[in-house]
Amino acid sequence: GQNIDQPTEMTATEGAIVQINCTYQTSGFNGLFWYQQHAGEAPTFLSYNVLDGLEEKGRFSSFLSRSKGYSYLLLKELQMKDSASYLCAVRDSILTGGGNKLTFGTGTQLKVEL
Amino acid sequence: KAGVTQTPRYLIKTRGQQVTLSCSPISGHRSVSWYQQTPGQGLQFLFEYFSETQRNKGNFPGRFSGRQFSNSRSEMNVSTLELGDSALYLCASSPSRDRTLSYEQYFGPGTRLTVT
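Structure tokens for the assembled complex are given below, as produced in the milestone run.
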């Protein structure tokens, strides 16, 4: 099975940089995902890491260390609209029949203030 | 390209009843996954269907079931509803082809189920 931990809440200032951490313990691993979810809306895909290192996509970057079971999502030049819940999710290994099964953390509620 | 659609968007049922929710994936997507989201447990995987076959199953009781049709549309059914089944039910579609996995999973808007 999978166990995923991320902070419950974070607060940051508009224009600043924030890093949301995620640690996981897994019996199999085939990729780590970050999703953004605004209140009352569906989660939207932000990033995917399957190999160690940093993936950059505009204002968002995601890092993965498989040996440490650790990932972070970095948000730069924060905007008010970035206030949302950020979900870390791990996909099971193909070898354990993972398919597209994602195990989600409980999410980090980010509040961006002026 | 139309996104993932789910019907109905809102539903109120009584304990003991059964309910069927529907999900239409993005055109061309053959994988459909279902998730339950509650404030206490977060997003939890229910099951995944690919080419009309259940490929994965989460840790939910047998009251939760699903199926997929030849056009990739999927339904999930919950029988003998309990108060704890009140949740947002989300489906996600993916363009997985055969056993090749795609990292793209697109979520629908969800069905908000309230059990009274």
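The mean pLDDT of chain B is 92. The radius of gyration of chain B is 13 Å. Further analysis is deferred to the final report.
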